């Protein structure tokens, strides 16, 4: 289910993986597209979060500069 990060089936599987990995001392990482989603995974025990993507950060920065100049 690539790209379906909000799908209940994906979330359920991820929660199971995080729990089982923690029981074995294995670090789990995942992607989050917002700080709120990152915090949800951190609260569930995920230790490594890839938050957002570089192109989105660049686009947001460019929009902020353009807005400041209007």
Strand order of the largest sheet: 1-2
* Biggest sheet details: 2 strands, parallel
Task: Give the terminus-to-terminus CA distance.
Answer: 41 Å
* Low-pLDDT regions: none
Secondary structure category: mainly alpha
How many β-strand stretches? 2
Query: Mean of residue pLDDT?
Result: 90
The fraction of residues in strands falls at 5-15%
Order of helices and strands: HEHEH
- Helix run count: 3
Please indicate the count of domains. Answer: 1
Helix content: 55-70%
CA radius of gyration is 16 Å
Shape: elongated
Features:
about 70 residues, mainly alpha, two-stranded parallel sheet, 2 strands
Could you please describe the fold and organization of this structure?
The structure is a single chain. The mean pLDDT is 90. The chain has 70 residues and is mostly helical. The chain has helices at 8-23, 35-44, 54-69, and strands spanning 29-32, 48-51. It has one domain (8-69). It is 60% helix and 11% strand. The protein is built from 3 helices and 2 strands. It has a two-stranded parallel sheet with strand order 1-2. Strand 1 (29-32), helix 2 and strand 2 form a beta-alpha-beta unit. The protein is elongated and about 55 Å long.
Describe the structure concisely.
This protein is mainly α.
